């Protein structure tokens, strides 16, 4: 366990996390904030306990996913609000996978919410708060030098593998995976790894029986307090933790 690294300087302050250097140049320290944001940060509320819940959900999923051999940045969760990760140069793309229609897909195409999408849809968004994370197609990404085509193919394949694994993992917990957003980066040796987080902040989850929201939509749509919902998600994950599924 690499729990003895010292926290260094703040490198990046995001909406839900802060990233610090450590005394090991290969490792970063990620602090999960007690804060929820929506509408690209226009709606922002402090929520006690959210950081700890997201850290535990994310840590549990990263640990299980990494155990299948899938490359991730995860090293260890250090305490209730900090995670140690490998330093990666981030690709400035959000990779979204949709199994059912929700959120922007519903408003863009005026389709029935939760309509099953077969095949699952992949979308890329340029990660830029100033531009409001605009949608990008492959040619736009390649022509602007953000990533070469081969990397986009690899990102789609990796996102599919995560989708297969995560869908099965949530199903064991009585939860359906509607859609999610991933971010990838490269380690110093060039290895592509899944980075960022795996939590109800960056995926839509519904109860398999009732279809009730079990993710940040509760906050986005003012449906009630977020903490009991995230606590229930963590409880279900922990209750179904025994097996390891291979991608
Ligand atoms: P939508 O495009 O419908 O808003 O989002 C699709 C999926 O990606 C949802 O699960 C949503 O949580 C996630 N997502 C999209 N953009 C962002 C973002 O900027 N931050 C986070 N945390 N998740 C996002």
TrEMBL record:
The lineage of its organism: Bacteria, Bacillati, Bacillota, Bacilli, Lactobacillales. Residues 11-236 form the SAICAR synthetase/ADE2 N-terminal domain. GO terms for molecular function: ATP binding; phosphoribosylaminoimidazolesuccinocarboxamide synthase activity. Its EC number is 6.3.2.6. This is Phosphoribosylaminoimidazole-succinocarboxamide synthase. Pfam families: SAICAR_synt. The gene is purC. It comes from Lacticaseibacillus thailandensis DSM 22698 = JCM 13996. Keywords: ATP-binding, Ligase, Nucleotide-binding, Purine biosynthesis. It comes from the Bacteria. InterPro entries: SAICAR_synt/ADE2_N (IPR028923), SAICAR_synt_PurC (IPR033934), SAICAR_synthetase (IPR050089), SAICAR_synthetase_CS (IPR018236).
């Amino acid at each position: 366990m690499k729990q003895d690294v010292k926290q260094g300087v703040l490198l990046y302050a995001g909406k839900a996390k802060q990233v610090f250097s450590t005394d090991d140049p290969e490792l970063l320290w990620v602090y999960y904030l007690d804060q929820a944001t929506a509408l690209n940060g226009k709606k922002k509320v402090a929520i006690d306990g959210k950081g700890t819940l997201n850290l535990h959900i994310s840590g549990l999923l990263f640990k299980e996913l990494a155990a299948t051999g899938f490359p991730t940045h995860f090293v260890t969760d250090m305490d209730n609000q900090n995670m140690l990760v490998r330093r990666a140069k981030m690709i400035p793309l959000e990779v979204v996978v949709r199994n059912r229609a929700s959120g922007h897909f519903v408003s863009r195409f005026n389709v029935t919410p939760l309509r099953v999408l077969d095949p699952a849809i992949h979308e890329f968004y340029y990660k830029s708060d100033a531009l409001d994370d605009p949608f990008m197609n492959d040619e736009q990404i390649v022509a602007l030098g953000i990533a070469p085509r081969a990397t986009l193919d690899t990102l789609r394949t990796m996102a599919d593998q995560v989708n297969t694994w995560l869908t099965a993992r949530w199903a064991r917990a009585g939860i359906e995976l509607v859609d999610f957003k991933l971010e990838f980066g490269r380690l110093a040796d060039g290895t592509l790894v899944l980075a960022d987080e795996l939590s109800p902040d960056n995926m839509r989850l519904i109860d398999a029986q009732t279809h009730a929201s079990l993710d940040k939509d509760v906050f986005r749509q003012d449906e009630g307090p977020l903490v009991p919902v995230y606590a229930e998600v963590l409880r279900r994950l922990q209750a179904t933790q025994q097996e390891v599924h291979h991608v």
